[in-house]
Write a structure and sequence with these properties.
- The complex is a heterotrimer.
- Chain A has one domain: Orthogonal Bundle (MetI-like fold).
- By secondary structure, chain A is an all-alpha fold.
- Chain B is mainly alpha-helical.
- Chain B has a domain of 179 residues: MetI-like (MetI-like fold).
- Helices cover 78% and strands 0% of the residues of chain B.
- Chain B has 13 helices and no strands.
- The radius of gyration of chain B is 24 Å and the shape is elongated.
- The longest helix of chain C is centred in the middle third of the chain and has 18 residues.
- Chain C has one domain: Rossmann fold (3-Layer(aba) Sandwich).
- Chain C has a 9-stranded mixed sheet with strand order 6-7-8-3-9-10-12-11-13, sandwiched between helices. In chain C, strands 2-1-4-5 form a 4-stranded antiparallel sheet.
- In chain C, helix 3 crosses helix 4, helix 3 runs parallel beside helix 5 and helix 4 packs across helix 5.
- In chain C, a hairpin with a 2-residue loop joins strand 4 and strand 5.
- Chain C is 28% helix and 23% strand.
- Chain C is of the alpha/beta class.
- Classes of the chains: A mainly alpha, B mainly alpha, C alpha/beta.
- At the A-C interface, helix 9 and helix 10 of A face helix 3, helix 5, helix 6 and helix 7 of C.
- Chain A: Its main location: membrane.
């Protein structure tokens, strides 16, 4: 090596070490910023927390059991002992709404988490191999699932498998998987072009490490948005299934079942459909608002 | 554009084919023999009768042979015969599809009209009282399950107006009034999500246009806000309408299954639901394929309409 | 795939005659362009169209050319981030192009790459200790506390404080982030580091610091560099030999000083003309030649000499015949018909 002239003076490290800043950003501060920027979504989050607490603490809140029948109080209107009235078997509607929340939330959580995991796995592998045969194969399957209107597919699969909570989850997952796959794949197509993925390959990382270590964390934000919106959709779909009699089997309390039981008594006991449906709508609304708020919060371009 | 349309159409055909194969194989994978399930209730059924029936339905053949046989028939519009009464599945669907078509189009029309009106009204004075309350309406519209909304509407009218929709179907040609009396409530319930979606999109696209420099100039020259709004609303509402059609078509089509059952409408939805309950597999198969085909076609039309409405859209 | 005529591609003998650390021969990368309903391949982008060079142990080889000439694709093929269409990449005597994924991963500890944009080449969600330590984990060299220790050493090696290893990339300046990128490249103790526009996105004063760091590291660790840049000044400062690339091909080769003082190809002339050379630094260069027009698309390279549509000195022969690599005095090669008269011979393929 010959020594050549140096274009400028030698490196002075002190001059460069200028960026201080916190090492960790506290989660609390991000939450506070979310509350300030997206008050509606924050309120929706609070509603969700309250709903979850109510359903978890149901036995402490209500003196009745979810299947407890009061023969002396059949189809009582709301008020007095029965906050939301009673149904045709004398069961307390308020109690069943709380226990129904358990069923609906549980089915939805398991569906979104399990279906989401499968959707993410397919999506990131597909996205990483974008355009190659593995991608084409997966995407043709996803397109097939998405070509059938959601509720039709749901009814078809659930009826084939037979009514049970486990089978509802399987059927509902078939709606979640393609939707999550779409988001995860699009994000992964973007991420795989990032130089840090090239760097990871140069580091000697294998495919699993690239996808899990570099893919997942970088598509986490859009996933939260879609998960929240899907949760709302799954809540409706689960109720629709139970309403049609192919979802949660009786006597387990579920909002959809309560609606279908109430349909026969619309004119004489409207509270049997008003309250479970109202609870369902409130939960769906909360998750929709949360999803919208998260999207705006995480992506400034979406702000209206 | 033409090449894109052609490619899109070809892929659509492929997807419908894949849906057919998927549904067919899923039905065959179900545990339990279709014939036994069907004849199970009849007293004194012999093994010979079961074998005879199985052979008559072609169910003794290998699955792939059955699939090719079905595909061959489906191309010519022959979807086989119903297990329950032997009537042609194609004929059943041909009877029921127009009813569901009417319901779906009514839902869409209600959604578009209400959505455009609400979107425009919201944009007149953004963040005003009217805007705030209309936005609440549209946010709720997106979250209300259509079947619950349908039930609420019936309850409300029954309790407060003492009126219930007829439960016996009449075709629009027979008795238009009776037909609409039955169809309007489910259409309203189905169209609520589309309404909400259109209102939201139209509101934000109008606010964007109204803030543009061009329109500031127009209004500075003396044109009223209402007039400018109306002129631009008509042009700008087309894009949201088609976007929403693409987004909500699946919801409206799927929703017919449940709303037709509630309102006693003999369309594709109730046919599918009944067939699923009766395990009438040929009918289920035909219905799911037709739902899929309609959905695929709607999506292709929406994609192509984007290019017609907005020439800036470029197809890959 | 059509193999391009290799006769025009300069190959330079390795000083000392030892086997070079890296020997690249007739490297080609074509990207197909598809069209129509059936996605037929109608043409291809010839990003790299037959490139050969070597890098000796402890040597720095510069690769210079405008953006879009294919030099980054060369960098990615050498480090096997992109699979070549054809050609050979031999690293320490082993052919890399045919290696299976597992065999290749073994070799990856012996070469690494530093990218242009220091921020986007560091995963924004990972702490520095994770990014820099990743090669150690991937090659099962060190994890946990041992990894942290090694990352601290590496941070000191590149002139950063080991106290900062738990920070995220956005908490560093561009120059610091690029030092982190260099630290990562050095984690496994490689023989070869490919620097793909490694200082191009930095301020001039920071560029100098990073260049000095690279020089220091080479001295201390005996590294070889393939140094890729569009700026001849930057390349000259570090390189022993320089390869000039235009539209997927190498047009001139020679020692760094020689090329700067006396370019033997009109394109090199133009490249020097487009570089702002400080007047104070002795050899002042006047911008004699300025290339006209835009770089043609690599999907439809011009016939004959690829530079002829932009070359101020082009004549009839240039439009029809691709010039061979003429061997000139002083270890120089030039693929220009104008040099035919002074050539000592033609480098054969």
């Amino acid at each position: 090596m010959t020594d050549r002239s140096v274009p400028s003076s030698a490196a002075s490290l002190a001059a460069q070490t200028t960026v201080p800043g916190t090492v960790r950003r506290p989660a609390g501060r991000a939450l506070w910023r979310f509350v300030r920027e997206q008050p509606f979504a924050a309120a929706a989050l609070a509603v969700i927390v309250v709903l979850v607490l109510l359903s978890v603490l149901a036995p402490l809140i209500t003196p009745f059991g979810p299947t407890e029948q009061n023969r002396s109080a059949i189809q009582q209107p709301p008020g007095g002992r029965f906050l939301m009235g009673t149904d045709d078997l004398g069961r307390d509607v308020f109690t069943r709404v709380l226990y129904g929340a358990r069923t609906s939330m549980l089915v939805s959580v398991v569906t979104v988490v399990a279906g989401g995991a499968v959707g993410v796995a397919i999506g990131i592998v597909s996205g990483y191999f974008g355009g190659r045969w593995a991608d084409s194969l997966f995407q043709r399957i996803m397109d097939t699932l998405m070509a059938i209107p959601g509720l039709v597919l749901l009814l078809f699969i659930a009826a084939l498998l037979g009514p049970s909570i486990r089978n509802s989850i399987i059927a509902l997952s078939l709606l979640v998987i393609p939707a999550v796959n779409r988001v995860a794949r699009a994000e992964m197509l973007r991420i795989r072009e990032e130089p840090y993925v090239d760097a990871a390959r140069a580091n000697g990382c294998g495919l699993p490490r690239i996808l899990i270590r570099h893919g997942l964390p970088n598509l986490f934000a859009p996933l939260m948005v879609i998960a929240s919106l899907l949760f709302a959709g799954v809540l409706i779909a689960e109720s629709a299934l139970s309403y049609l009699g192919v979802g949660t089997p009786p006597p387990t309390a579920s909002w959809g079942r309560m609606l279908s039981e109430g349909t026969k008594f619309l004119e004489i006991a409207p509270w049997m459909v008003v309250f479970p449906g109202g609870a369902l709508t409130l939960a769906v609304l909360a998750f929709n608002l949360l999803g919208d708020g998260l999207r705006d919060f995480l992506d400034p371009k979406h702000r209206r | 554009m033409v090449e894109y349309a052609l490619r899109r159409a070809l892929y659509g055909v492929l997807v419908i084919f894949m849906v057919t194969v998927f549904v067919f194989l899923a039905l065959r994978a179900v545990p339990g023999d279709a014939v036994r399930i069907q004849l199970a209730d009849a007293p004194g059924v012999t093994e010979e009768q079961i074998a005879e029936r199985t052979a008559a339905l072609g169910l003794d053949q290998p699955v792939l042979t059955q699939l090719f046989h079905f595909l061959g028939g489906a191309i010519t519009g022959d979807f086989g015969a119903s297990f329950s009464d032997g009537s042609s599945v194609g004929g059943l669907i041909a009877d029921r599809l127009p009813v569901t078509g009417q319901l779906g189009l009514m839902a869409l029309a209600i959604g578009v009209v209400l959505g455009v009106v609400i979107g425009m009204a919201s944009a007149v004075r953004p963040n005003g009282l009217l805007d705030q309350s209309l936005r609440l309406v549209s946010v709720s519209g997106l979250s209300v399950p259509s079947f619950w909304l349908g039930l609420l509407l019936v309850t409300y009218l029954a309790v407060y107006a003492g009126w219930s929709p007829p439960l016996i179907y009449q075709g629009p040609a027979e008795n238009l009034g009776g037909n609409l009396a039955q169809m309007t409530l489910p259409a309203l319930a189905l169209g609520a999500a589309a309404m909400a979606s259109i209102a939201r999109m139209l509101r934000s696209s109008l606010l964007e246009v109204l803030q543009s420099d061009h329109l500031r100039t127009v209004r500075a020259r003396g044109a009223g806000r209402g007039t400018t709004l109306f002129k631009h609303a008509t042009r700008n509402s087309l894009l949201p309408v088609f976007t929403v059609l693409g987004l909500q078509a699946g919801g409206i089509l799927g929703g017919t299954v449940i709303l037709e059952s509630i309102f006693g409408i003999p369309g594709m939805g109730s046919l599918t639901f009944e067939a699923v309950q009766m395990r009438d597999y040929p009918v289920v198969l035909g219905c799911v394929i037709v739902y899929g085909a309609v959905f695929v076609v709607v999506n292709i039309v929406v994609d192509l309409m984007y290019g017609v409405i907005d020439p800036r859209v470029r197809y890959r | 795939m059509n193999t391009p005529a290799t006769t025009t591609q300069p190959r330079v003998p390795v000083p000392g005659g030892r086997e070079p650390l890296l020997a690249v021969t007739d490297l080609v990368k074509h990207y197909p362009i598809t069209k129509g309903l059936l996605r037929r391949t109608v043409a291809s982008v010839r990003a790299v169209d037959g490139v050969s060079f070597t890098v000796g142990r402890g040597e720095t080889v510069g690769l210079v050319g405008e953006s879009g000439c294919g030099k980054s694709t060369v960098a990615k093929m050498v480090t096997r981030l992109v699979q070549p269409t054809s050609g050979s990449v031999r690293f320490a005597g082993t052919e890399l192009t045919g290696l299976r994924a597992r065999e290749l991963r073994e070799f990856r500890r012996r070469f690494h790459i530093v990218f242009q944009d220091p921020y986007s080449s560091l995963d924004p969600r990972l702490r520095i200790v994770e990014s820099v330590g990743e090669p150690l984990v991937a090659h099962r060299i060190a994890t946990g506390a041992a990894k942290r220790r090694r990352v601290c050493e590496l941070m000191e090696l590149v002139g950063l404080s080991p106290a900062h290893i738990d920070r995220y990339p956005h908490q560093f300046s561009g120059g610091q982030a690029q030092r982190i990128g260099i630290a990562r490249a050095l984690a496994t103790g490689p023989d070869l580091v490919v620097c793909d526009e490694a200082v191009s996105s930095l301020d001039v004063s920071i560029q100098a610091q990073v260049l000095n760091l690279l020089k220091k590291l080479q001295r201390e660790l005996g590294l070889s560099y393939l140094f890729i840049a569009h700026d001849l000044n930057v390349v000259r400062y570090l390189s022993d030999r320089v390869f000039v690339m235009y539209l997927g091909r190498i047009v001139e080769v020679g020692p760094a000083a020689g090329i700067m003082q006396r370019p033997a190809h009109p394109y090199t002339d133009a490249l020097i003309g487009s570089v702002a050379t400080p007047t104070s630094s002795g050899g002042f260069r006047r911008s004699r030649v300025v290339a006209r027009g835009e770089v043609p698309s690599p999907s439809r390279p011009p016939p004959g000499c690829r530079f002829h549509p932009r070359c101020p000195e082009a004549f009839d022969l240039c439009r029809v015949q691709q010039p061979p690599a003429y061997r000139l005095t002083g270890d120089r090669l030039s693929a220009c018909h104008l040099r035919a008269g002074e050539a000592e011979g033609v480098r054969d393929g």
